[in-house]
Each structure stands twice: as structure tokens, then as C-alpha cells.
Amino acid sequence: MRALFIGRFQPYHLGHHEVVKRILEEVDELIIGIGSAQESHSLENPFTAGERVLMISKAIEELGAKSRVYIIPLEDIYRNSLWVSHVCSMVPKFDVVYTSNPLVYRLFKEAGFKVLKTTMINRTEYHGTEIRRKMLEGDEWKKYVPKVVAEVIEEIGGIERIKEIAGRDF
Ligand code: ATP
Ligand code: MG
Questions:
Q1: Distance from the CA of 169 to the center of ligand 1, in angstroms?
Q2: How many CB atoms lie within 10 A of CB 168?
Q3: b/e 5-36 (16+ beta carbons within 10 angstroms → b)
Q4: Pocket around ligand 1: residues whose beta carbon is below 6 Å from it?
Q5: Which of 37, 62, 147, 166 is in the most buried spot, having the most CB atoms within 10 Å?
Q6: Residue-range domain boundaries for the chain
């Protein structure tokens, strides 16, 4: 059985990681779709698709599950009625979709897929928007992401990037 889980992963945090671990206990293979793949260098989407691939693949490697996981970047098509077909054209065949996003749930259900709801884990702290705010404001952020993800973010100068793009014109 192969499952699909989609997010923007800006960044990939411990909430996502726990969901992925739980899905991997239930299925043989998992496709992780990286949404809004074309976006980067903005406050809402600071990291490129490639940087997000790196974060996720290093975290999955630590789980010893690399051979069971496919990480696929997915660009936006800005047309919800066609989005499921777009996703299907980009990823291997899957039997079930896991999501906690109501729109993703609705779109895959309408298209006839089996969709299972995931539970939120410590959402107040494991929340991309909140983690990006902490990065920008100089608060502690590393404890909310897998250690290898923090290493990738530091290696690419991610915090400097966020602070710089939040700045005004010179
Ligand atoms: P943002 O605030 O940027 O939207 P996010 O934390 O919601 O960040 P997404 O990439 O949007 O991260 O999430 C991908 C999927 O993971 C979504 O379906 C989202 O609901 C789910 N998710 C996000 N945070 C958690 C969490 N703490 N526990 C379980 N699922 C989560
Ligand atoms: Mg979200």
C-alpha cells in the first residue's frame, strides 16, 4: 500500500515528522509531495523546493526509511478543480491520501480517493508560520524541527535570508 502526504514544509518540522512516522507504521510506501514548489525567498515560503527536499530526505534517512519514501516537488497550478489531476500526473500511483487540510481532503474525496485525516500534534509549537516568525524575530526555533533540518537551514544561511528579505529597500 502506498500513501500520499502533501505540505509546503516551510520548514519541515517535528509535527510533520511525527505524522510521517505514524503513516509509515501503517503503509509500505509514502509519497511526500512538496507543495508550492515554485515558491522561495519570501516570508511565507523562504526555502526552495530543493532545500525542502534536502531537509525532508535527511530527516527520513534518520528514520531508516529512505527506500520507502518518494519526495516529489509540486508546483501550484492555481486551479483547484484540476489540482488532483495535476498531482496525479507528477507522483507515483497511490492508494490513500493522508491530510489534515480541509481543502486537500475535499478535493481528493471528490476525485474518488480514499482520504484519511491525520491528527494535529502540539500545533501551538509545531506550526510553520510560528516557527518562521521565531526565525525572523531571533527566538529559539531549532527545538521545533528535526536536528538535521536545523543543520540544513544553518548551512544555507536560512535565518539570514529570512531577516534580509523582511528588510526595507536600502
Ligand atoms: P504553515 O503555517 O506555513 O501553513 P504548517 O505547519 O501548517 O505551516 P504545512 O506545510 O502547511 O505546515 O503542513 C503540511 C500538512 O501538515 C498540513 O496538512 C498540515 O495541517 C499538517 N501539519 C502541520 N503542522 C502539523 C502538526 N503540528 N501536527 C500534525 N500535522 C501538522
Ligand atoms: Mg499549513
A1: 32
A2: 4
A3: bbbbbbbbbbbbbebbeebbeebebbbbbbbb
A4: 7-10, 15-16, 19, 99-101, 118, 120-123, 126-129
A5: 37
A6: 2-165
- Predicted local confidence at residue 5, as pLDDT: 98
Chain centroid, CA 16 distance in Å: 7
- Mean pLDDT estimate for the chain: 97
For 2-165, CATH number out of 3.40.50.620, 3.40.140.20, 1.10.8.60, 2.40.10.340 equals: 3.40.50.620
CA–CA separation, 137 and 133 (whole Å) = 6
Ligand 2 center from residue 128 Cα (angstroms): 7
- Span from the CA of 82 to the centroid of ligand 2 (angstroms): 20
